[in-house]
């Protein structure tokens, strides 16, 4: 299975915080699964850290690409095609976060299961989103 971590899931997994669900932890440890973190998450971490909305204990935003590689995961670039077509993802009234929308659209179009516990994400299942939580 191809797994794409949303930003919170990536932070929790890297910190081994215990906030991941048991199925998500098992999926991440399964050597048959490939795990990726999007550059969109690095952008979100940097932006929210800079705004004071995210506290990174003992790390800087610039450290996260290295942390991902050290975890044995891949870094997924944001393709021009995904960025340009992301406006096709239906706009649900309860969910408008642009970072999440890019991650959801990427997962749908690139065949990933999105690792996320976000309560709003199941609403995208009819549009092709597969979740792992």
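Q: What amino acid sequence fits the structure above?
A:
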């Amino acid at each position: 299975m191809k797994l794409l971590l949303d930003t919170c899931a990536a932070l929790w997994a890297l910190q081994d915080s215990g906030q991941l669900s048991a199925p998500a932890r098992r999926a991440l440890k399964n050597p048959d699964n490939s795990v990726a973190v999007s550059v969109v998450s690095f952008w979100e971490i940097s932006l929210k850290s800079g705004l004071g909305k995210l506290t990174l204990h003992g790390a800087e935003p610039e450290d996260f690409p290295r942390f991902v590689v050290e975890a044995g995961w891949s870094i997924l670039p944001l393709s021009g095609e995904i960025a340009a077509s992301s406006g096709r993802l239906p706009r649900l009234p309860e969910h408008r976060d642009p970072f999440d929308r890019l991650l959801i659209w990427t997962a749908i179009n690139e065949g990933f299961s999105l690792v996320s516990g976000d309560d709003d994400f199941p609403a995208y299942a009819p549009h092709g989103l597969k979740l792992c939580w």
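Q: And what stands out in the fold?
A: The mean pLDDT is 96.
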